[in-house]
Known about the structure:
The chain is an alpha+beta fold. The chain has helices spanning 37-48, 81-88, and strands at 3-9, 18-24, 27-32, 51-52, 55-61, 67-72, 76-77, 92-94, 102-104, 114-116. It is built from two helices and ten strands, in the order E-E-E-H-E-E-E-E-H-E-E-E. Strands 8-5-6-10-9 form a five-stranded mixed sheet, with no helix packed on it.
Amino acid sequence: MRKKKIDLTCICCPLGCPISVTLEQETVTSVTGNTCPRGDAYARKEVTNPTRIVTTTVRVEGGIAPMVNVKTASDIPKNKIFDCMAALRGITVTAPVHIGDMILQNAAGTGVHIVAAKEVAAKE
Length: 124
């Protein structure tokens, strides 16, 4: 069996613990350096199935602002980020926009929706 060591910096809190993960044939066999259980869970997920929340903006038509902040409703696989961004590139929404409004369903086939993260009122 071939062991592989991966060094990470935990992003779960401001401590930024240096974490070392040992893998044997894609199975995590040890996690060291974390000071809390969240660091252990983060490290295991990061080396086996990394995910991210995506935040960006889309155009708004008829609003008091030309853009609205949007984000994924939950994390998506890291390798789907560029597909998600490409799917959002041509989207324009009509004001008013409310926090939580669905902007795009099933972004890039992830099963995760894109939602508004800010309010944009309509022009009067």
